[in-house]
Amino acid sequence: MAAVHYAGVSHRYPGADSLAVDSLELDIADGEFIVLVGPSGCGKSTSLRMLAGLESVESGRIDIGGVDVTSLAPRERDVAMVFQNYALYPNMTVGDNMGFALRNAGMSKADTAARVLEAAKMLELEPLLNRKPGKLSGGQRQRVAMGRAIVRQPKVFCMDEPLSNLDAKLRVSTRAQIAGLQKRLGTTTVYVTHDQVEAMTMGDRVAVLEAGKLQQIASPRELYDNPVNTFVAGFIGSPGMNLIDAPVVDGAAVVGNVRIPVPANAEARVVLGIRPESWSLVGDGVGSVSVAVELIEELGAESFLYGVPPRGTDWSTQSGRLAVRVDRKLEIGLAETVRLVPKFDEVFFFSAATGQRL
Ligand SMILES: Nc1ncnc2c1ncn2[C@@H]1O[C@H](COP(=O)(O)OP(=O)(O)OP(=O)(O)O)[C@@H](O)[C@H]1O
Ligand SMILES: [Mg+2]
Which keywords annotate this record (predicted)? Predict the structure, then answer.
């Protein structure tokens, strides 16, 4: 077990103009489960692969357990990697797949078998140890891949989208299994996903990356409650926070017929962040924001209404629509106009120029 420290770590792929990872600064505690999340191409895999020693470090330093590993080969780092495409050896049994690396490293047959059995019990793979991977379900194969990493008892687990080959339901149950297992093993884990729900449900802390740069690292709740900028605000949450660009008149942002007092450092325009659940539907006669219903998404326990602002307004949303959580039994037709009022104490304010929280 070991803490991990990225000290200003950058990576540039040969011939690329910009850095794939730019001065990454990350302190991961011993035993912590950290999730790297962000859109495709933001540098998650590159960050992880530098930790595992599979990509070089252009500048900066990586420590594992207080030891500078920046120039060490992958096998000298005591890191186990689980990939999305966890190619298992098709001709080997589950047990042999799991023990392969140990045998290769010279461990005795008996010791290997004991380690494999222990991991198999944890992963509920014991009855399958003698099967070949071809005769396993996707979820079982994924657990074998986890098992291969676990038996090595590494200092750090590096996981790159290990669940993305599984169907939605299996992903949900497997993510809970992995998170539970990690807690039991207490092994420092860096986990990469582009799925913010996965990130929020699994991580002790979540690091949000965009365009090679770390935007924020915080607990899931803190990310949700205190996003530092519009990127994090819009990325976390499903649907993400509505980001509304609005003019500021006499110390208040004006959206439709609603005036929302803004912080003193706001400029002539401001970006308001208002989550889908932070709205109320109101009747006529109240100062409100009107939108035309474009789509209603019924998810069972809850519904989301997507509305478009009327033409010619002085405010707009970054996504072009406003997402609003509504009563799941609300009967409302497409193209109907609804009137909304935000919960004032749940509104976030961001600089229109920089996107930073005001
Ligand atoms: N082998 C490579 N050669 C050149 N550029 C690369 C290479 N691998 C990745 N990149 C570029 O580096 C940037 C970061 O890529 P990376 O694979 O780390 O992204 P990611 O966050 O893991 O994305 P995804 O969610 O799609 O897996 C991207 O712009 C990508 O195009
Ligand atoms: Mg990737």
Answer: ATP-binding, Nucleotide-binding, Transport
Radius of gyration from C-alpha coordinates of the chain: 24
CB-CB neighbours of 287 under 10 Å: 11
Picking from 319, 357, 342, 352, the residue whose alpha carbon sits closest to that of residue 248 is 352
**Which CATH number is correct for 239-351, 1.20.120.160, 1.10.260.40, 2.40.50.140, 3.90.380.10?**
2.40.50.140
Centre of ligand 2 to C-alpha 190, Å, is 13
Q: Could you list the pLDDT tens digit for every one of the 358 residues in the chain?
A: 699 999 999 999 999 999 999 999 999 999 999 999 999 999 999 999 999 999 999 999 999 999 999 999 999 999 999 987 778 999 999 999 999 999 999 999 999 999 999 999 888 899 999 999 999 988 889 889 989 999 999 999 999 998 888 888 888 888 888 999 899 999 999 999 999 999 999 999 999 999 999 999 999 999 999 999 999 999 999 999 999 999 999 999 999 999 999 999 999 999 999 999 999 999 887 789 999 999 999 998 899 999 999 888 999 999 999 999 999 888 888 889 999 999 999 999 999 999 999 9
The CATH code of the domain at 4-231 is 3.40.50.300
Q: At 214, is the secondary structure helix, strand, or coil?
A: strand
Domain boundaries, the chain: 4-231, 239-351
Contact 81, 162 (CB under 8 A): no
Ligand 1 atom closest to 161 (CA) = 27
CA 44 / ligand 1 centre spacing (Å): 8
